[in-house]
Amino acid sequence: MPHITIDYSGELEAAFDRRAFVRELHPMVLARTGSAGVCKTFCRPAAETYAGEGEAGPVAFVHVEVGLLPGRPEPLKARLAEQVLALLDKHLPAAGPGGEVIRSAEIRDLAASYRLRNARRAVPVPHGSGG
Predict the structure, then answer these.
(1) Contact (CB, 8 A) for 1 and 61
(2) Could you read off the pLDDT of 21-80 as tens digits, one per residue?
(3) Phi, psi dihedral angles at 69 (to 5 degrees)
(4) What sign has the CA pseudo-torsion 62, 18, 107, 89?
(5) Which of 13, 33, 109, 110 could form a disulfide with 70 if both were Cys (CB 3.0 to 4.6 A apart)?
């Protein structure tokens, strides 16, 4: 189960269609990584942020972090990060309400202590398997 966190500047609340982005992101992450199950995604507006000043005003940002069970090669993670950025480009305006919008993506390994439990039973997730 990939864990996805999307942090974004609060001023992008109306301009960033998170639901449409996530609908495309989930199947892409599963297909590119060979993960099983579903993705768990948190979308968090960052109310108090400062990413600098651009020519047209304050700089807004969106950062997407995808956590996977260890074992994927770095080139695969780098390609997925580029694909996430391309998808962000599709769902974000070129400029935010005050100016520039910076996009970033990180594909990282979940900690070895990660465990998954559903409502019915514990699901053992061996270290390095495809979740």
Answers:
(1) no
(2) 999 999 999 999 988 777 889 898 887 665 555 555 667 889 999 999 898 999 999 999
(3) -60, 145
(4) negative
(5) 109
